[in-house]
Amino acid sequence: MKIFKHIAPLKSHLKEQRLSGKSIGLVPTMGALHEGHIALLRASQQENDITVSTIFVNPTQFNNAGDLSRYPRTPDKDTRLLEEVRCDILFIPETGEVYPAEATIKIDFGTLDKVMEGHFRPGHFSGVALIVSKLFHIIEPHRAYFGQKDWQQFAIIQQLVDELNFPVELRSIPTLREGDGLALSSRNQRLDPESRRTATIFYRALRHARDLLLQDMDIPAVKEAVAQMIAEQPAAQLEYFEIADKKNLKALKSVEAANDVILCIAGYVGGVRLIDNLLMEGAPALSGARL
Ligand code: AMP
């Protein structure tokens, strides 16, 4: 694996590769790698001649300085893991390489970034869009791989690509979970053993909500049931639970077709912020009448 810390040599290496007809897949990460990241990498390896992983804890997407400083950083372990899984290129720059001066550009996504993560983490998606745009310009990938776990992020990056004509195909990869359902996340490393046990509450709540919707329960009652379920766990705090249109992410007042629906949740366990979501996809059609 070739490791680059600087943009210029990475760009010239990739230019040579492109000129010799090689296709390039990009897997952007913030490190503290787990099997979820590796699933993205494997998807890229299947479709591209060269896979570039990036590890960069992007300061502009953190709206909370404590969250940024506590974000887990394990670069040596990550590098070994990427070697093992035969990643071709790792780009792991220092902050000053990516942001030589303070970033001033703000990107607004209209309605998409005003709900859920965007509402509770103001400026987050502007920072995500900025780093992803930079990585697209630096690496010029043919394809880029993102996880369904960050569903809203994917919707926003798709809008970014569409509106700014980035010549890249986006791929969205299903969420990898632990045996007990907890979505793999770098932040899980910060859970103490008791919080780790409690952390499954969010996925259990999502599944419970899906079951209730399939039983034709109306949306306010489902939301109430989820809030109640989480309130019963004193170590967990719910930030939001939304039943949304999976394309435009608008909160739904009624569910017409289950296939259009995504359930999204965010909250804290033991001071660690976790998010998760569940597509209603594959669920039998709902009557809609009573929802
Ligand atoms: P992060 O390092 O958390 O910024 O994540 C980098 C990429 O990995 C993002 O596209 C995430 O959506 C994706 N990702 C994170 N967790 C998972 C998971 N459990 N399964 C699949 N992809 C994931």
Commentary on this structure:
This protein has 11 helices and 9 strands. A 6-stranded parallel sheet has the order 1-4-3-2-5-6, with helices on both faces. Strands 7-8-9 form a 3-stranded antiparallel sheet. The protein has helices at 7-19, 35-47, 65-70, 75-84, 95-98, 116-120, 124-139, 151-164, 193-198, 201-214, 219-231; strands at residues 2-4, 24-29, 50-55, 89-91, 143-147, 169-173, 236-245, 261-269, 272-279. It is an alpha/beta fold and 291 residues long. Helix content is 39%, strand content 19%. The protein binds adenosine monophosphate.
Draw up the topology in text.
Layout: E1 2-4, H1 7-19, E2 24-29, H2 35-47, E3 50-55, H3 65-70, H4 75-84, E4 89-91, H5 95-98, H6 116-120, H7 124-139, E5 143-147, H8 151-164, E6 169-173, H9 193-198, H10 201-214, H11 219-231, E7 236-245, E8 261-269, E9 272-279
Parallel strand pairs: 1-4, 2-3, 2-5, 3-4, 5-6
Antiparallel strand pairs: 7-8, 8-9
Percent range for β-strand residues = 15-25%
Counting DSSP E segments of at least 2 residues, the number of strands comes to 9
- Separation of the first and last Cα atoms: 53 Å
Mean pLDDT value: 95
**Strand order of the main beta sheet, please?**
1-4-3-2-5-6
The secondary-structure class comes to alpha/beta
Keywords:
291 residues; alpha/beta; six-stranded parallel beta sheet; three-stranded antiparallel beta sheet; 9 strands; 39% helix; 19% strand; globular; disordered C terminus; binds adenosine monophosphate
Give a concise summary.
By secondary structure, the chain is an alpha/beta fold. The chain has helices spanning 7-19, 35-47, 65-70, 75-84, 95-98, 116-120, 124-139, 151-164, 193-198, 201-214, 219-231; strands at residues 2-4, 24-29, 50-55, 89-91, 143-147, 169-173, 236-245, 261-269, 272-279.
